[in-house]
# Entry
Amino acid sequence: MTAVEMDRSLVEQLDRLSLQMTEISEELERQREMREMLLGLTELANPVMQMLTARAAELEEKGYFTFAQGGMEIADRVVTSFTEEDVQALGDNIVLILNTVKEMTQPEVMNLLSRTAVEVQEIEDSPVGPPPSTFALLRQMRDPEVRRGLARALTVLRSLGSQAPTTTSPKE
# Structure
């Protein structure tokens, strides 16, 4: 091998090394830029993570997660308790059910139910005596509240005994 050939071979090797060094340098620059970008994202993510952690702790303290877990257990019981036919019947009657619930949640109805529950509890807690006489019942009829209550009870009984079901049409 002559000196010229050796020089040419050395130049080619140096050119390849130079090209490889340039590629390595470019790769290192890309990696440096990627690290800087990741550090920037980390700096942005830290406050968000702290906020999310604080909010989750607040929700845990208030009992949201315990409530949600209980809700999932209730939902599981509901799902496993109904057949496909039950779900179909529910779907067929959902508007009527929701209208009934809407009517039941009116303040007047809720107050009536609350008063009734209190009275039933008081009756349950009081000692059982002999039933009132006919004259004692007639004496109670002088009380306007008793007469109003009896009139309401008779209205409910009339509704229960009627042939045509009373349905509430949805408001449009």
Summary: Helices lie at 3-62, 64-81, 84-104, 107-125, 134-140, 144-161.
